[in-house]
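ESCALATION

Customer reports they have been waiting on this structure for their group meeting. Please prioritize. Original submission:
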Amino acid sequence: MDDVAHVYTHTHRVRYRECDPMSVVYHTHYVDYFEMARTEAMRDLGLAYRTLEDDGIIMPVINVSVQYHAPAYYDDLLAIEAHFGQMPTVRVPIDYVVKRSDDDRRIASGHTDLCFMDADTRRPIRLPDRVHRAFASVLPT
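Update from on-call: job pushed to the front of the queue and completed.
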């Protein structure tokens, strides 16, 4: 991951319903954790998804990958990092790292690509100006 990345960290306590019968987090929940982190990271930049949608902009996930390094368990407090390493264009690439909040070892890592789209036409669009301004405040241009 890029050293000049903007990193946002979201904390989440593993709920019982997220675990399998062995008290291990079920693998698909990591994609939900990525969504939590990126949604709050965007909100922290002043870009709540709701306001983007109100402006006719949607951001579907067009690619996702997850690598599992170690298990997380019921009641663990996780730190989910969303790394924005470059200025978005039509796509928004985001890397993720999931750790226990009191430990530096990786539990999972991953990547998503989102795409800016016009909600009416469902066609890709270039980075909206206000999104550019928000990211320019934390990333080199």
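Sent to customer with the following note: Residues 99 and 106 are 5 Å apart (CA to CA).
Escalation resolved.
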